[in-house]
Amino acid sequence: MADYVIIGDSHTAALKQGFDATGLASDVLTISGNLWHSGLVGFEEEAGLTSPNAGAQAAIDAVRMRLGGGPLVAPGRPVIASIGFHLGRLAPPYSFRGHVADRMDFIPDKTSMYTSQAFLRGYVRHHRHGLVRL
User: Distance (Å, rounded) from C-alpha 8 to C-alpha 87?
Assistant: First the structure.
């Protein structure tokens, strides 16, 4: 049985390779970054990790069964997560209208708008709060 559980998006493949290379027993749950980004993977107190997406739920259930049928997150079993932080997904909507977060990129005309670091932190926190909480 795995001592560690790796949960996340496509980046979990690299994490799994690292665990295998060092001889650490792990199991991995990989769910599309699109589903993490869209908020279609969540956590319920009694059910644990869940998804309304049938494929994602099947992957969750398969790992759960390999781990003995209990929750993926269990006392004494560390979980390593790469859960779709996807700043690359947040950057395009931010920059479409010319927003920039670095004063060096700011051109004082109508093509760019400088936003403060506080605004940028708030933007990321707003869009990633659910994943961080998870």
Answer: 15
